Amino acid sequence: MSKEYEKLLNALDCIRSKTDFVPDVALILGSGLGGFADEIDQVASIDYSEIDGFPVSTVVGHKGRFVFGYVGDVKVVVMQGRIHYYEGYPISDVILPTRLMGMMGAKVLFLTNAAGGANLDFNAGDFMLIRDQIMAFFPNPLIGANIEELGPRFPDMSEIYDKEIRGIIKATAGKLDIPLKEGVYVQFTGPSFETPAEVRMASMAGGDAVGMSTACEAVAAKHMGLRVCGISCISNKAAGLAENPLSHDEVQETANRVAPLFKDLVRTSIENIGKIL
Ligand code: HPA
Question: What pTM was computed for the model?
Answer without folding.
Answer: 0.97
